[in-house]
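Why run this: before we spend reagent on co-expression, it is cheaper to look at a predicted model of the complex and decide which construct boundaries make sense. The entries below are exactly what would go into the expression plan.
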Amino acid sequence: MPQRPTARPRPVRRALLLLAFLAPPAAAQGVGDGVLLPARTLAAAVEYDLERWDEYWEGTLLRRNENIGTLTTRRARLWTGYGLTDRVTLVASLPYVRTDASDGVLRGMSGFQDLNVAVKLRVLQAGLGGRATLRGLVVAGAGAPTTDYTPDFLPMSIGLGSRTAQARGTLRVEGRNGWFADGSAGHTWRSTVHLDRPAYYTDGQLVLSDEVAMPDVFDYVVSAGWRGRGLAVPVSLVGQRTLGGGDIRRQDMPFVSNRMDFTRVAARVAYALPVFSALSVSGGAARTVAGRNVGRATTLTGGVAYARRF
Amino acid sequence: MRAASERARRWVGLAALALLSCDRHVEPTEVLPPLQAPSVDAAAGAWRMFVLDAPDQVAVAAPAAATSDAFRAEVAAVKAAQAAMTDAQRANVAHWSGGGVLRWNQVMRELVARYNLPPVPRPDGSYPVPDAENPFADPQFPFANPPYAARAYAYVSVAQYEALKAAWHWKFRYGRPSPAKVDAGVTTLVPPGDLPAYPSEDAVLAGVTAEVLKLLFPGSVEEITRHAATQREAALLSGRATASDVTAGLALGRSVAALVIARARADGMGTAGGTPALWQGMASAAVARGEVAWVSQESPARPPMLPNFGNTRAWTFTAAELAATSPGPPPSTSSERMREDLAEVKRVAAHLTREQQAIAMKWNDGAGTYTPPGHWNDIAAEHVRDARLSEVRAARVFALLNMAMHDAAVGCWSVKFQYYNPRPSQLDPTIKTMIGLPNFPAYPSGHSTFSAAAAAVLGHFFPASATELAAMADEAGISRLYGAIHYRSDVEGGKLHGRRIGDHVVTLARADGGG
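The model came back. Tokens follow.
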């Protein structure tokens, strides 16, 4: 049976909620966890990612490329969440992305990337023997590029240029002593993208069109952690599997519809300032441990978040 | 709360609708309507030959008469095959009905894109050379870079053109009608037309194209053979050829291919890769002239792309005639003009608009693509399709276009390696490129040369589009400045050179009997 909704958040509890919210698994943009904001609470955060790789998977072959050297991607992300009710939270994020290669002659790119929005809806809340709470969420999301960047210059391109729709389900268990665990899986549908050229070769075929069909994407996030005393510490395993698409051919450039798969581990710490608990800071790191047609990336993340109830 | 979830549901519904309302499938190939040429071009057997001495150089024996029992049995076999046709066979007939020359041109562009990948360096920093005798190795053979591709498109197009002119000669000599013309019981799955059926033009194309393509892309023999087999099958099932039409056509096509292949084996391509001594000598000569010599900016440094390709045999020029089309030297690397050119590249790159970026991307045609000559074949294919040209006239357009682009490649490479001029990013390492940096000297721009030559030839065949084609060629040229890999003087030199070569081929076209 659903429990009575949790008590009105006291400041510390609100800070903890915010912390959980601010410490989402890497690259899940606040949709891959089971955290909801209390009603009429607005959270806003600025995050900065520094991502680097000097090896990438050309298909399944892990290699270096002296004409790229180290590829660095910097992302400054603005994101916000709002608790419409205790059961419904809206989230939105928009990153500004900049890429640079340390070697070779290819030019880096920069610009605002995709706006992603999602609604997280609690559909289940149950006590587990008084020691823990189980929560179930369904999430619907959508994304679209905010600028006319080209996705046809990978790995320098700042994004893939596709409009997306996402559906996912999430389960979260929260223990009374501060432990929590999330499991979330999603499916993303992607629109075709248009290139600036009239033909391209991918997946063993010449396509005489400027339009590229984008395979769907499945992703999962499993995380666990602890929170209390102004801290939240989740560790996560994040996976993406593209449901189709071709491999990068030997010595070819990556292509927008490639089968981009990865498995990534991530850890994060968020800390609510003791004097002003509405404000919190966080930092984290992630490492791609397996992949296909993606870089073997290491990511460092830092952020500041603020929340208040209206 | 209810209102909120209601709102959420509506929002999700809207998002899903927005996505599903757009088609997520992409048609990979050009849809070609069934070819119904207004003219059969009955005189094509007398048009000028380029490799063959005469249209009857390859003999085709007289067929059985249309009234003979043998022919009636063949027609009955066509009817029986049509009665047992599967959906896949029907789709295959529809596919080839768009025109064999156009379909093979697509196949060729696909093969070029598949093989247009540079070899991967060895761990010691050296580069292996693709080996025609071992096409499946790493690196695969060939590396279908722009000069290789220009030559490949030309050989296939010329071979098709020669074979079809010969076929037209025999078709109108013997005048045997197609099965659909003599027996109302034969279903016509393609527009029947008045072209005599013996030898089958489809089988001629299948035979000649497959043989030449197998030489150029030995790693894809199986796929090439399959295409050829489906084209021959379509000829029969469509009701326009009998078994003897196909057999005679295949034999004629293969014989013409053998003559063209003999030329290919002796055209100098085998030594186009040059030697380290050759390109070091080129660099030293540039330095001796007081110039900055080009160096590879790839890491590890890669040998220049086919430095001796400029000595490959041209189609429409002697070596001396081709040398006379040269645009002359580039501005000295120490000149004021070069300083201005370099400053312009830097300025354009720093203020590149999205539209300029799109132009650079549109004409990039770099590694992994069908190359600039392939891009112009793509453009030509649209015009050929819209003009509803007979197979032999379509082959003429592609043959003259691709001879011009091959000769443009030979001429351009000759000038590039004569001057050995550095790229902008070599003279100013702060210049970063919007597209892949080609691994050979800058002057003159290959894109500009190819494109000016192609636009001249296509503009001759499709005069209503001449202005538009010339504008496209200019755009292709300037795209290299936008991409920050060429100076304006490279673009202008290439355009001048390409124009001279294209105009020369147009002069030939005016006098080849094809109108």
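The CA atoms of residues 100 and 108 of chain A lie 4 Å apart. Confidence is low (pLDDT under 50) at residues 1-12 of chain A. Bring this page to Monday's planning discussion.
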